[in-house]
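step 4 of 6: structure.
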Amino acid sequence: MSSLLEIKNLHASIEDREILKGVDLVVHAGEVHAIMGPNGSGKSTLASVLAGKEDYTVTEGSILLNGKDLMELSPEDRSHEGLFLAFQYPVEIPGVSTANFLKTAVNEHRAYRGDEPLDPGAFLALMKEKMKLVEMDPSFLQRSLNEGFSGGEKKRNEIFQMAMLEPTLAVLDETDSGLDIDALRIVAGGVNALRTPNNATVVITHYQRLLDYIVPDVVHVLWNGRIVRSGDKSLALELEKRGYDWIKNETAVEA
Amino acid sequence: MSTLPLATNIQDAFDALATAMYGTSAEPFHSARKAAMDGFNERGIPTTRHEEWKYTNVMPIAAKTWRHVQNVWSDGTITDHVHPVPGLQNAIGIVLRNGIIHLTGSTIPDGVEIMPLSSASVEDVNESDLHDNPFAVAAMALSSEGVLVRVADNVQCPHTIHVMVCGETDDDGILLTTRVFVSAGRNAQVDVIETHHTLGGADLLSLGVCSAVVHEGARMSYVKIIDDASALHHIGQLTARVERSGTFASHSINLNAGFVRNDAQIKLAGELSQGFLYGTSILDGVQYVDNHTVVDHMVPHCHSEELYKGVYNGASAGVFNGKIFVRPQAQKTTAYQSSHSLLLSGKAQVNAKPQLEIWADDVKCSHGATTGQLNEDAVFYLQARGLERSKAVAMLTNAFAAEVLEKLPHGELKNHLLQRLADKLGAAGL
C-alpha cells in the first residue's frame, strides 16, 4: 500500500501560540482514519493547516500528499492535487449559485489536469447524478451557496461538492456537528459511496456516533497538539464509554 | 457672504423665465414656481454644516458658472444620439435633450397619456409641499416644462417608459432642470427607466425632480441608471406617494457618474402599501455618489425594504443616509434597511448613516450597515474548492454587487447591467 498522506512532526502556531506540537500521521489509499479528541486539542487546526489556511504558520515538520510537499502549494493547488476539506462551518456566499460555483470549481480542476471544460449539458447531468448521493433537491443548484441552508443541508452540500471534485484525500471536519440522525445517515452514506481503493478519508469528530456509519480502519486521539494514541475502531468505543480523561492521565504519566 | 455663482445663475434664469412668461405669470404654475424660487433663496446652497449635506461638499459645483437651458416641448423628430440601452428597444422613449422634449419609440398604448406639463392641469401636478433639498426646489422653480405620464385605472402599460436625460455641451457648462410626473391609476402598472447621458466633454449640471403617485392597488417601478455620464453632476429628487395596497420600487444604479446626489423618498400613505428602495454604485477614479433615502410609514400595516450596495475603487467615494419614520399610528409596520459597502482601495471612502425614528410600539424594524473588505473566510472557502485567489475575489465582488441588480424586473436590461458590472470589475483587475 502506498501512503497517500504523510505528516511528520508537524508544528503549527496561530499568533505565536503553538497549537500543533509534533503530529505524525500516515494514511494509505483505501483507508478511513478517525481523529478524535477533546475540545481545543488541535483537531480543526490540523484540518485548516492541511487545507492551507493562512492564519496558521507551520513552524516545523512536513506534509506530503501523494509524495508532493503540501507546504509548497496554494490552497487552490492543494485542492487540484486531490485534497478536499469538508468544512465544519461552510461559509454562506450570497449571490453565487451552487451550480455556478461548482461549474467554476470543476472546470478549474479540469484545467489543472489539462482537460477541456465540461459542456453545460454534461455538467448539469453530472450534478444531478451526484446530488442523488446525498438526497439533495436540484432546486438547491440555483440557490446561493449555503445561504439560508439548514445545518444538515450545508453538510450535505459539502459531501455533494466532494462527489463532484472526486478528491483522493477527503478531510471531514466535524461533519457530524449539527446533524440530526437522518441527516447523519445520509451524509455518511454519501461518504461511504465515494470510497474507492484509491482514495482515503480522514474523519475528524468529537463523538463516536458518526463512526457507526463511517467505519474507521484506524482511530487516533489528538490531545494537546499531538496524536497520543492510535488503535482500531474499538478505541472509539472505549472513548465513548470512558471519556478522554484516562488518556490525558496516562499521557501525563508517560510524559 | 458673497452670493455663489450658481445661486446667481438660478435667480437670473428664473427672472428670465418670469419675463418670458409675462402675461401668464399670474397662472397657478407660475405662482408655484415663484414659491419654489422663494424656497430656494430661503434654503440657499447648503454647506457641509447642513446635516443633510454633512459629507457632500457642493461648493466646487456652486462656485462655477452654469447656463440654464430651458425645457421646450417639440413635436418634431431629432436624431437620437443616445446609445440604445439593451432591453429598451421597445420602450416608449421620452428624450430630454438639452431640455427639449421629444417622444420616440413605441406608440403610446390606450390608457397611457404622455404630455408636456403645459398641457397638464394644475391638479395633475399639484405639489403639496416643497422639498427640503434646495436643488430640487431650484429645479421646480426653473422648470416651466417637463413631462407628465399618466396610466389610467386598471391599465397595465405594456412597454417600459424610458426617460432619457441628455446633456450636450461642448464649451461652458450648462444647467438642465427636469420635471417628471408619473401617475399610476387604481390597479394600474407601469415601469419607468430614467437614464442620463452626456454628449460632448464639458461639465453639465442636471437637477431633476420626479414625483410619482401610486394609486390604490397600483404597481410602479422607477429605475434610474447613470452609466454614460462621467462629465455629469446630477442632483435628483424622487418622491413617491403610495396609496392603499400599492407597491412602489425604486432602483438607483450608478456605474459611470461624475457626481451624483440622489434623494429618494417614499410616503406609504395607504394601508397595506409597500415600498422598496434599492441602490447599486460601482465606482472608481474620483466618482462620487450620495444616496439619501426617506421612507415615511404614515399608516398601519405597511412594509418597506431598502438595500443599497456600493463597490468603491480608486479614490471614489460614497454616502448612504437612510431615514425611516414610523409615525405613532403606523402600527404593524415592517421596515428593513441595509447598506453594504466594499472598499477595494485604501483611498476609497464611504459614509453610511442609518436613521430610524420609530414612534409606534408594535412594529418590526431593522437596519444594518457594513463597510469593509471581502470576507476572507469566503475567499478561502472558494480557494479550498480549487478557485485561484484572484478568481475567488472576482466571484465574490461580482456577487456582492450583483445582489441588488438581480432584483430588477427587466430581464434583458438586468443581464446587460450585470455584464457591465462584470466588465467594470474586470477592468479594475477583478
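step 5 of 6: annotate
 - Chain B is about 20% helix and 40% strand.
 - The CA atoms of residues 6 and 60 of chain B lie 10 Å apart.
step 6 of 6: archive
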